[in-house]
Amino acid sequence: MRNxxxxxxxxxxxxxxxSQTITVKDANTSEPIEMxxxxxxxxxxxxxxxxxxxxxxxxxxxxxxxxxxxxGYQLKVVSYEELKSSNFEILLQPxxxxxxxxxxxxxxxxxxxxxxxxxxxxxxxxxxxxxNPQTAADLLGVSGKVYIQKSQQGGGSPMIRGFATNxxxxxxxxxxxxxAIFRGGNIQNVISLDPFATENTEVxxxxxxxxxxxxxxxxxxxxxxxxxxxxxxxxxxISGKVNSRFSSANKEKTIHADIKYGWKKWAFVTSASxxxxxxxxQGSKGPDxxxxxxxxxxxxxxxxxxxxxxxxxxxxTAYTQKNFMQKIRFQPNENWDFQYGFHYSETSxxxxxxxxxxxxxxxxxxxxxxxxxxxxMMNNLNITHxxxxxxxxxxxxxxxQQQFEESRIDRNxxxxxxxxxxxxxxxxxxxxxxxxxxxxxxxxFYGTEYVLNNVNSTGQAENIETGTVxxxxxxxPESSWSSIAVxxxxxxxxxxxxxxxxxxxxxxxxxxxxxxxxxYSFPFTEAKINNGALTxxxxxxxxxxxxxxxxxxxxxxxxxxxxxxxxxxxxSEPGAVVIPNPNLTAExxxxxxxxxxxxxxxxxxxxxxxxxxxxNNAMVRRNYQLNGQDSIIFDGERSQVQSxxxxxxxxxxxxxxxxxxxxxxxxxxxxxxxxxxxxEELDDGSVSPSRHAPPLFGTTRLNFKSGDxxxxxxxxxxxxxxxxxxxxxxxxxxxxxxxxxNGNTYAPAWYTLNFKxxxxxxxxxGLNFGVENITDQRYxxxxxxxxxxxxxxxxxxxxxx
Length: 801
Prior knowledge:
This protein has 801 residues and is mostly beta strands. It has six helices and 54 strands.
């Protein structure tokens, strides 16, 4: 017993001896700085400061080059001994610009932006706090570089570099969110994420298939949620925040709370949020084509068209949502780190607004069209082992299980049959990643991945008069989709000014689907795909001087056919129906981009990125035949038969430009501009504009920050898209677009003026106030099925502890 006690005392004293806390402060204000990244490449360690500017750097003992950096501050590189001599207190000098600012994680491991050949955009927590985005889709729009399309309030479909939906990849804490029923049309899965529980958001533009596999063609959107923080002292560390918000345009009522509590080896974080949105009011000044002055209501057993008192209200768009997150972290020693995360999100039912705008024979096309509750759950276990060995310096194991549930409910006007089609997806993934530093100039990243998705789809028809329920056609076949891959990425830094990166990935993907022919007489009963894809990338970053940065990158990417591509049955537009096609193969993208950034006299920063992407074997909708017929009766009307086919070549090219000016007195002027052109080959060999390449769009911001005040006046804007510039498939959608003087559809130009401010009333308690769309414009973002908010007053109270 005595020996055991002595051993415990020794271990305890060792723990104390090797526990060392650093404090990072602003050199001008002496205020602590949160979210400072502390990196040692030689030890492969990454640490960040907490709300009090503190971090435990015990793992960095003996390090010769420790990088201490944060957006808006000058990079500081010191040794552990220098930290010790400064009594472990560091003062960071604010700076105007830095071309090597942030450590990112969107590439699955942490790297400086200055070492990444691709263009990367990071959305800071301060910007999110000021802008107060209502959903995770709106959060992406804060960047000014991602275009957001909406067909309902409970949605938001990003467009990046002319691509959208299943040609973009979402990751949450390093786990891919894309599943086997991510469709080519606009999707709303991103709203499952909680912007209040998001610690950092990063967008990597261009191909990401070497690291993430299928779907990462236009870009990768990486969401890092709140992390559990260990205590660097003998006592427990507790912190958290409470937020409440009201918005006038949709009578939003939101409440959020999170709490972090940690000890030396154990840490926890709990987060919960709830949103309540009424029908959205659009602006008073704009095209009358966007007004819908009626809605359908069931009265005394009959569908009745009811006139709205206020035609600016978009009915139905109301919905509610709740999110919950729990994380647990256990770090038994400096070599091992275990982190478990649980995420749950659920919405109420919500209407698909654009479908309620459809008309047939002078009457509403639908009496009902809504999505059922959208549910998402994820269990994620991440195990990290850091120790220098022959084969790796750091090993990461990530195991994840996700469940997705969604449904579509519709009923034709004056019809008693309500159709309900439900989908459930069970998604499993396993990643094994390694990092190995070779000498002082080279680093190898390599790993393997396995993904499995099981899809269950059902259909029901309910007679709302009699209550009788019967089976009907499902949206998808019973299916499984799987992928297995190996990859490697090599980074070579011959000097501090030059970084070269190259990588390769081989991916095998399999799909098995069984079709039910009870409702449709398909000439097939199953689909099987077993194919592979090889992708690669090569790029470089060169810094001719501290104020210059040049980068060039070439990359390939692929998208494997998923269950939505192969097996879906749906009405794509009035008079057309899409049926399954079991003969699909993968589509491939080839991308080139080149970028330049320059700082002039520590006053002006400009950056430009030009890109060109070719998509071969593109999966697109084309006219088709079913049992020799080119049209069938579907949902009560004769419809042209179509299917998804590998039938096109698409080209996208464009320019992303940014400018930032720092004036004295805390004034900042910045602007982001995005120009993209997309072209898609049609059946007859002609070329159509691409649906997912929005018109010219951008954001310009004038910001003032001083002491407890942060004030921003900004404008969002979009150029016009004429009828001839719309995708051919979009030109008939009068329920979405305005009409020009010739009665043809088009997307008008628009702009909004907006004001946001935050003020710290007293320590750790703040007020946020904003007015969006000050001039009350009635506008509809390109390709959206509903108008954006009119004049919108936002009030938020925030408490940190």
